[in-house]
Write a structure and sequence with these properties.
7 helices; Dna Ligase, domain 1; D-amino Acid Aminotransferase, Chain A, domain 1; single chain; 2 domains; alpha+beta; five-stranded antiparallel sheet
Length: 219
Amino acid sequence: MDKDVAKRLLNEAGFKQAKFHVIKKEDKYENKINGIIKDLKFPIFVKPARQGSSVGISKVWKRNDLLNAIQEAFKFDSKIILEQAIVGREIECAVLGNAQPVASDLGEICLTNGFYSYDAKYINENTACAIVNVKMSSIMKKRIRETAINIYKTLECEGMSRVDFFLTEKNEIYINEINTLPGFTDVSMYPKLMEISGINYPILLESLIDFAIEKRNKN
């Protein structure tokens, strides 16, 4: 999914998000950096707009490193996002379904270094851990799960998605992003969350096939 388009749609719908700016490869972006830095506080995330698995993402703490991070992101996309970092717990929710989606119980990403990078997801498992059965009040869990479903419906998603949030110390819920093709390996959060919610792997696969057939028949 195009993160830029998703963010603009979610802004219009009133969901809380980090402040962000979009720049394109054909822009004279060097002239825009001063204005962006005035609007966003460090640290800043620099992301390709249409990549997944944290490919091409950098977390930048000072101005001198920003241009290199922008150039790195442009290796993977012609449109990139510069986004204010949010301090908070990283919470994830799996959503499954078409017109009447259901939300899983919640998971949490705990980091020992930096951010949830490609390396942390797939190569060096010692830099992050994925927790299921998150310690949180039932009221807050319900709020996050309901928000995940509302986001899913707002973006007219079908089949499956994983919705990622930040939860601040003030219990403010910020949408990080929605992943419409979430990781599906044996260490990925999506199947783990569905498992603890009573939907095991074989049932999950059958459900996804059923939803795909339902979508095809509807069209």
